[in-house]
């Protein structure tokens, strides 16, 4: 029996592609991060950032926390902050799906919506202003080493354990880049030949959870040397593959997971053999008010 809902974060399942992967010499495994209690891979980073911050004394129950988010990190922070009795304001673009906004509020967080025209960059600017002028404390997932260290502690070791050390390629969409940075660091320590593949959108494509950041907003935790290859996917590819994941593999996920899967399948077609692990970063139910599954 778990003592807390937070004990259920991590140890998510790996399932093999039964239909989408057509290369018989390659095993494609999906890591189902939607099985985390907050519904996404971001539960891992949020837990480590909050627990580590509390342990260091960076903030406490009297602090006013703030964080800009495109969605999943916000839900995870709202859930975990609520569990610790912390005051948190989450800032996100106004075109975020209502499921995300309502979930954060259900967990007790204050949610501030910024103009869709300036996207997540505008939300980040708003949060930075509150830190400078109102004394808020930012979690700062984009520059917080506890973000990537969460995956060094958990995601990487789980993949190594569950593939019995046989993983050859790891594929992950890149947003804050915490998942790919931490997992790469661990897997490369175990076997430097494991190939780390990042996924970004093509120019002009808008895929929630995947970004090609302008230089001024590039996450400070990102280290390009930890990524062996970057594959770009179009918005259309990501949407189509999210739908195919649901219909053909019975894996219900968001658009960023569709993008990662499209890249993983493209990679699989180029290999003579291998074991690919691709991150399915969240669940599809938080996109039902969008046109993703229309």
UniProtKB/TrEMBL annotation:
<keyword id="KW-0028">Amino-acid biosynthesis</keyword>
<dbReference type="InterPro" id="IPR050214">
    <property type="entry name" value="Cys_Synth/Cystath_Beta-Synth"/>
</dbReference>
<keyword id="KW-0808">Transferase</keyword>
<dbReference type="InterPro" id="IPR036052">
    <property type="entry name" value="TrpB-like_PALP_sf"/>
</dbReference>
<protein>
    <recommendedName>
        <fullName>Cysteine synthase</fullName>
        <ecNumber>2.5.1.47</ecNumber>
    </recommendedName>
</protein>
<keyword id="KW-0663">Pyridoxal phosphate</keyword>
<comment type="pathway">
    <text>Amino-acid biosynthesis; L-cysteine biosynthesis; L-cysteine from L-serine: step 2/2.</text>
</comment>
<keyword id="KW-0198">Cysteine biosynthesis</keyword>
<feature type="binding site">
    <location>
        <begin position="175"/>
        <end position="179"/>
    </location>
    <ligand>
        <name>pyridoxal 5'-phosphate</name>
    </ligand>
</feature>
<dbReference type="GO" id="GO:0006535">
    <property type="term" value="P:cysteine biosynthetic process from serine"/>
</dbReference>
<feature type="modified residue" description="N6-(pyridoxal phosphate)lysine">
    <location>
        <position position="42"/>
    </location>
</feature>
<dbReference type="InterPro" id="IPR005858">
    <property type="entry name" value="CysM"/>
</dbReference>
<comment type="similarity">
    <text>Belongs to the cysteine synthase/cystathionine beta-synthase family.</text>
</comment>
<dbReference type="InterPro" id="IPR001926">
    <property type="entry name" value="TrpB-like_PALP"/>
</dbReference>
<dbReference type="InterPro" id="IPR005856">
    <property type="entry name" value="Cys_synth"/>
</dbReference>
<dbReference type="InterPro" id="IPR001216">
    <property type="entry name" value="P-phosphate_BS"/>
</dbReference>
<feature type="binding site">
    <location>
        <position position="72"/>
    </location>
    <ligand>
        <name>pyridoxal 5'-phosphate</name>
    </ligand>
</feature>
<dbReference type="GO" id="GO:0004124">
    <property type="term" value="F:cysteine synthase activity"/>
</dbReference>
<feature type="binding site">
    <location>
        <position position="256"/>
    </location>
    <ligand>
        <name>pyridoxal 5'-phosphate</name>
    </ligand>
</feature>
<feature type="domain" description="Tryptophan synthase beta chain-like PALP">
    <location>
        <begin position="6"/>
        <end position="282"/>
    </location>
</feature>
<dbReference type="Pfam" id="PF00291">
    <property type="entry name" value="PALP"/>
</dbReference>
């Amino acid at each position: 029996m778990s003592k807390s809902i937070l004990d259920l974060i991590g140890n998510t399942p790996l399932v093999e592609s039964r239909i989408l992967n057509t290369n018989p010499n390659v095993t494609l495994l999906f890591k189902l991060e939607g099985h985390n209690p907050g519904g996404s891979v971001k539960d891992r980073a949020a837990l480590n950032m909050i627990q580590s911050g509390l342990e260091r004394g960076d903030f406490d129950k009297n602090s006013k926390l703030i964080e800009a988010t495109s969605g999943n990190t916000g839900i995870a922070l709202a859930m975990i902050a609520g569990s610790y009795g912390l005051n948190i304001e989450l800032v996100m673009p106004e075109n975020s799906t209502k499921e995300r906004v309502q979930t954060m509020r259900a967990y007790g967080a204050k949610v501030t919506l910024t103009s869709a025209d300036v996207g997540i960059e505008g939300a980040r600017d708003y949060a930075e202003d509150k830190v400078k002028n109102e004394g808020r404390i930012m979690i700062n997932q984009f520059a917080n080493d506890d973000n990537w260290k969460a995956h060094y502690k958990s995601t990487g070791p789980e993949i190594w354990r569950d593939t019995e050390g046989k993983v050859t390629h790891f594929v992950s969409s890149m947003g804050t880049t915490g998942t790919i940075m931490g997992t790469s660091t661990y897997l490369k320590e175990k076997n430097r030949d494991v190939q780390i593949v990042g996924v970004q959108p093509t120019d002009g494509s808008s895929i929630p959870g995947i970004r090609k950041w302008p230089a001024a907003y590039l996450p400070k935790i990102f280290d390009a040397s930890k990524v062996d290859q970057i594959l770009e996917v179009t918005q259309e590819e990501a949407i189509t593959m999210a739908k195919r994941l649901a219909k053909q593999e019975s894996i219900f996920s968001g658009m960023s997971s569709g993008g990662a899967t499209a890249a993983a399948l493209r990679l699989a077609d180029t290999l003579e053999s291998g074991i690919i692990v691709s991150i399915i970063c969240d669940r599809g139910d938080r996109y039902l008010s969008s046109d993703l599954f229309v």
